[in-house]
Amino acid sequence: MMEGACQIHVGMKKIVIGIDIGGTNTAFGLVCDEGKIYGQGRLSTQQHPDVDRYQEELFLGIQQLLRLVEFEYEIIGVGIGAPNSNYYKGTIEYPANLPWPGVTPFVEKFKRFFPALPVVMTNDANAAALGEKIYGAAKNLNNFVVITLGTGLGSGFVINGELLLGHYGFAGELGHVIINHTGRVCGCGRKGCLETYVSATGIKRTVFKLLADKMGPSEFRYISYNDLTAEMITNAALNGDPLAIEAYEYTGEQLGRALANAVLITEPEAIFLFGGLTKAGPYIFEPTKRYMEQYMMTQFRNKVDVLPSGIEQGNAAILGAAALIWNEMLRAGA
Amino acid sequence: MMEGACQIHVGMKKIVIGIDIGGTNTAFGLVCDEGKIYGQGRLSTQQHPDVDRYQEELFLGIQQLLRLVEFEYEIIGVGIGAPNSNYYKGTIEYPANLPWPGVTPFVEKFKRFFPALPVVMTNDANAAALGEKIYGAAKNLNNFVVITLGTGLGSGFVINGELLLGHYGFAGELGHVIINHTGRVCGCGRKGCLETYVSATGIKRTVFKLLADKMGPSEFRYISYNDLTAEMITNAALNGDPLAIEAYEYTGEQLGRALANAVLITEPEAIFLFGGLTKAGPYIFEPTKRYMEQYMMTQFRNKVDVLPSGIEQGNAAILGAAALIWNEMLRAGA
């Protein structure tokens, strides 16, 4: 399970415990400062409706990893990425996809296992943004956005080198910007949110809209909505399928237009795209950039890059969670 | 011309020179730390196509004001609010409404008169936001937005107590967020920008749209587009005119929807509206708040206030410009 080795330093090595809480599973790992994951584990989130029991199992898993470490180490903190989590309060609040209803004081509870350590939690897209800054393609940038394209669309904004959290700790929710208020129904209860167009689910919906609007043949005419995956659409686009390419063009148009508006507010120097849809390469990046520039106000044109994330997909969530702690260390000048 | 007196302190009094550069006129004044304007002057911007000559006249005007000061003082800086200005570079870049084309290194030039002092410049809406923080209704707030409703729509964002400037210094341009990409033609060359709906000009356009769409009588059927002013519409609304009230309702809807989206990105605790349209009172505040909440994502609902600015209209621009310097002093812990 040792997936990488930390560089050899003199004396005791500092490591951070990174935890990524997803709706189905939780991934956790030990991360050293150069971004190597030294040992990684997994736990079902779904099967743990009791959060105390879940935390005990998580702690056991972490202890198992720590027993395998073959060098002297010091744990300097615990970073957690979780949906609907509040950085300021350490709570997870009304999560749609986690088995803990209402408000859970997750950090306060988890600190019983690490009473002397900083335990910091934010949502997965914010964690991804910090991961990009500490380990990825945004190492020298102070103003940038990371867009995570998964089942939904998450976003993390870094402004003057700091994570944008907002007054209540929920800022940076670009996925729920309404781009068409009479548009597609969203899981949040409203209509026309960006993520209903730009996400793995969004592009599926777009393929079905195109199947409805057009008459031509397509391999997707043989597949049910529930059997269709974004990966199939990506592969079809890469194989030159016109309908799949058009679906990506449409996705890029919606994303590009939304980014042109977002740039007016925070004016980043770069926007990084992360997640499954980015495997379509030029089919997503090219229209996104093209429509962003087309709808951009003149003085902002050709100033903002749209780039792929510099973080490997498999490790991103744990690295991002760990980056929460490394970032606090950097800010403290340690 | 002495419009207020600074409070009596022991010893030398600190004052800031505040300058507001508008398309038609420039206003300038001496501002002390409690926000009193001690002397105020005016100069035509329009009639000075030569920026060096303009700056000389401006400096003469400031010297005249200083000669009238009846206490011992120390000038601690010069704050300038100007359209299309760049905080980082001290430049005014391609202004549509100023007589200086291209890029003018305004701060660098003006420093010849004040070589030993900080000279800081930003756009008028950013200055208004700092004015609100130092002298107005946002004194205890660290995350808020100020929307200035004039000929156009300006916005200044304060995040964690700091002005949001962006990587290139032009952030916070909510007036040019596109709310309908097939909508009204904007002076910026694009279509459907928020300020084509929400501004003094925007509400005039809305009245003319309503006159076109509807059949009923209205006092506005006797007035040409060029003779109509936003003030007439405000007065008509306050007198119960249904068409004027509907124009405000429509304006509030567009603004409320745009704010619901903007809140998702920066999550402020309050949004302040400033400028002529706010004289309509409930006719602008009520629909803005109602539509903002209606289109707001659930977890953000009923958390963000929409409030009138706490700064008097006449003094706002000079106070805002001066606040640039007072804010730097506060940040430096002076």
Map the helices and strands:
2 copies of one chain form a homodimer.
Chain A: E1 13-21, E2 25-32, E3 37-44, H1 51-67, E4 73-81, E5 85-86, E6 91-93, E7 103-104, H2 106-110, E8 119-122, H3 124-135, E9 144-149, E10 153-159, E11 162-163, H4 200-213, H5 230-238, H6 242-266, E12 270-274, H7 282-295, E13 305-308, H8 316-331
Describe the structure.
2 copies of one chain form a homodimer. With 334 residues, chain A is an alpha/beta fold. Chain A has helices spanning 51-67, 106-110, 124-135, 200-213, 230-238, 242-266, 282-295, 316-331, and strands at 13-21, 25-32, 37-44, 73-81, 85-86, 91-93, 103-104, 119-122, 144-149, 153-159, 162-163, 270-274, 305-308. In chain A, the strands form 3 sheets. Chain A has a 5-stranded mixed sheet with strand order 3-2-1-4-8, sandwiched between helices. In chain A, strands 11-10-9-12-13 form a 5-stranded mixed sheet, sandwiched between helices. The first copy, chain A, has a 3-stranded antiparallel sheet with strand order 5-6-7. In chain A, α4 packs across α6, α5 crosses α6 and α6 (242-266) crosses α7 (282-295). Chain A is globular and about 65 Å long. The model of chain A is unreliable at 1-5 (pLDDT under 50). Chains A and B meet through α6 of A and α6 of B.
Beta strand count of chain A: 13
* Quaternary organisation: homodimer
Output the strand order for the largest sheet of chain A.
3-2-1-4-8
- Rg of chain A is 20 Å
Low-confidence stretches of chain A: 1-5
Mean pLDDT of chain A: 92
Structural class of chain A: alpha/beta
Shape of chain A: globular
